Amino acid sequence: MNCQTTKEQISQLLDNELRAEELQPMFQHLSECEECRKFFLQTKDIHDSAKTLEYITAPKVIDQKFAVLGMEQQQSFLSRKFTISVPSAIYSIGAVIVLMLFIYVSGTIQEKQIAEQYRQTMSLTMPYGASSYDRN
Fold first, then answer.
1. Mind giving me the DSSP string for the chain?
2. Quick check: 113 pLDDT over 90?
3. What is the C-alpha to C-alpha distance for residues 114 and 110, in angstroms, rounded to an integer?
4. Beta carbons of 39 and 10 less than 8 angstroms apart
5. Contact (CB, 8 A) for 31 and 6
6. 3-state SS string over 51-66?
7. Where are the domains of the chain?
8. Helix axes of 34-52 and 3-14: crossing angle, nearest 10 degrees
């Protein structure tokens, strides 16, 4: 076991989340590595101190103020007016037109390629000298 793995497992150990088969190699490493042992003791102190902290809830007045503040911010966002400059609008419209032309031309090129492939396929499947109009 290496130091990195041991340090990652210390938190799991303190939270009783470590599997039984992982305990022995970790304790073996802790008995041999002073740096990891120090890390374990510091982490254990922090973990134990955190358990003694009291949990308090905010007074209702503060909750109400945050709720009002949240509603005010939401209303100000919804009532915000969005503006765009004339040059930006022109550039945007131009970009849309160019994009639409590109899509149209790409589609047309693909249609021509597909039609050409179809013609080539049909000419290979027709008997020599027969045309597509000679179907009796």
1. --HHHHHHHHHHHHTT---HHHHHHHHHHHHH-HHHHHHHHHHHHHHHHHHHPPP----HHHHHHHHHHHHHHHHHHHT------HHHHHHHHHHHHHHHHHHHHHHHHHHHHHHHHHHHHHHHHSPTT--TT---
2. no
3. 6
4. yes
5. no
6. HHCCCCCCCHHHHHHH
7. 3-52, 84-127
8. 20
For 28-76, the pLDDT digits (tens) are 999 999 999 999 999 999 888 888 877 778 788 887 888 887 776 666 6
| Cβ-contact 29, 52 below 8 angstroms | no
43 neighbors 11 (Cβ within 8 angstroms): yes
- How many residues are given for the chain? 136
Q: Which two tokens stand for residue 40?
A: 């374990």
Paired tokens of 45? 């102190």
Q: Virtual CA dihedral for 74, 80, 82, 83, nearest 10 degrees? A: -160
